[in-house]
């Protein structure tokens, strides 16, 4: 039934002849501009979440980096714990992942959308955003490697604090970049410039 | 917008301003809650329902009623753009661009 209706609608298309081609072009332009305005509205929502996103990501990745620092300590059982210290590492890893899932769930709940693991489509199609994600991916390896090396070399508390801070700052900065690119992609105008349409209007008038 | 690889096909169902905006929002977000969609478009419950029903009749969207938070008695409606809806919307946007370009 629905498919039949759909076919009927698309078949009606050739009959959709406007009174005036210029008017139809203006209507189409207006429709495209409305879509741009709606996306700009979505961008405002993402911009509002920027700070909280950065803080959450910094906490999650700071905790993850600290977990990497703990791995050598657990491996060599340097703190002489009565139980297997690998459980501490496993627990921290689980907490970090749960926190990450919580961030995504809370954000989508605030926005009233289904949880998304990926950015909105216009952002995914933006080259600048893709570049930000690619850079984040590679930079992401720095804190764990640093944390493992430092954790292997020393047990000092300040070294743990330092690597945690490095992990938080690097990932927070990358998240800030990604958020900016998402907002930029959503704010990008996709409707053609109306001035081009105006100039063609003048030609059609053929005055003078 | 993502109409690069789509055949331009003008779609009367999607062309209605509110329905076009609904499809535009869903194309960006994927799945949205009914109340958020209604508030973003600044329209009434009835208007929003009417347009969603039309889109659902053409299999462009899928309406999913789920229990409210914490298993409360009321239901929350989630609106999802189907694959057909996505294609139809992108083809329609491509058609609009073609019209604006004067082709």
Describe this structure in words.
The complex is a heterodimer of chains A (208) and B (103). Chain A is mainly alpha-helical and 208 residues long. Helix content of chain A is 78%, strand content 0%. Chain A is elongated, with a radius of gyration of 26 Å. Chain B has one domain: Arc Repressor Mutant, subunit A (Orthogonal Bundle). Chain B is an alpha+beta fold and 103 residues long. In chain B, a hairpin with a 7-residue loop joins β2 (61-67) and β3 (75-81). Chain B has helices at residues 12-15, 17-29, 34-41, 45-57, 83-101; strands at 31-33, 61-67, 75-81. Chain B is built from 5 helices and 3 strands, in the order ααβααββα. Helices cover 55% and strands 17% of the residues of chain B. Chains A and B meet through α1 and α2 of A and α1, α2, β1, α3 and α5 of B.
What is the strand and helix layout of this fold?
The complex is a heterodimer of chains A (208) and B (103).
Chain A: H1 2-11, H2 21-75, H3 86-111, H4 121-124, H5 127-139, H6 142-153, H7 157-187, H8 194-205
Helix pairs in contact in A: 2-3, 2-6, 2-7, 5-7, 6-7
Chain B: H1 12-15, H2 17-29, E1 31-33, H3 34-41, H4 45-57, E2 61-67, E3 75-81, H5 83-101
Antiparallel strand pairs in B: 1-3, 2-3
């Amino acid at each position: 039934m629905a498919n039949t209706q759909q076919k009927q609608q698309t078949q009606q298309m050739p009959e959709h002849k406007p009174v005036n081609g210029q008017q139809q072009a203006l209507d189409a332009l207006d429709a495209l501009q409305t879509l741009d305005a709606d996306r700009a509205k979505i961008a405002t929502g993402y911009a509002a979440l920027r700070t909280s996103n950065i803080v959450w990501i910094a906490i999650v990745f700071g905790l993850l980096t600290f977990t990497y620092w703990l791995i050598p300590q657990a491996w060599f059982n340097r703190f002489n714990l009565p139980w297997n210290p690998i459980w501490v590492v496993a627990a921290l890893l689980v907490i970090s992942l749960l926190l990450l899932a919580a961030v995504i769930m809370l954000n989508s709940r605030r926005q009233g959308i289904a949880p998304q693991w990926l950015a909105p489509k216009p952002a995914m199609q933006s080259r600048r955003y893709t570049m930000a994600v690619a850079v984040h991916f590679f930079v992401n390896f720095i804190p764990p490697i640093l944390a493992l090396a430092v954790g292997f070399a020393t047990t000092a508390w300040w070294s743990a604090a330092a690597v945690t801070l490095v992990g938080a700052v690097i990932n927070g900065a990358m998240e800030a970049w990604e958020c900016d690119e998402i907002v930029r992609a959503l704010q990008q105008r996709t409707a053609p410039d109306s001035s081009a349409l105006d100039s063609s209007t003048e030609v059609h008038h053929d005055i003078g | 917008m993502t109409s690069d690889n789509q055949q331009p096909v003008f779609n009367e169902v999607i062309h209605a301003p509110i329905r076009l905006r609904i499809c535009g929002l869903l194309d960006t977000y994927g799945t949205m809650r009914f109340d958020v969609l209604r508030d973003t478009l600044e329209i009434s419950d009835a208007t929003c329902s009417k347009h969603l029903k039309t889109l659902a009749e053409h299999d462009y969207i899928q309406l999913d009623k789920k229990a409210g938070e914490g298993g409360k008695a009321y239901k929350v409606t989630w609106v999802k753009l189907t694959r057909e809806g996505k294609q139809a919307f992108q083809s329609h946007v491509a058609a609009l661009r073609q019209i604006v370009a004067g082709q």
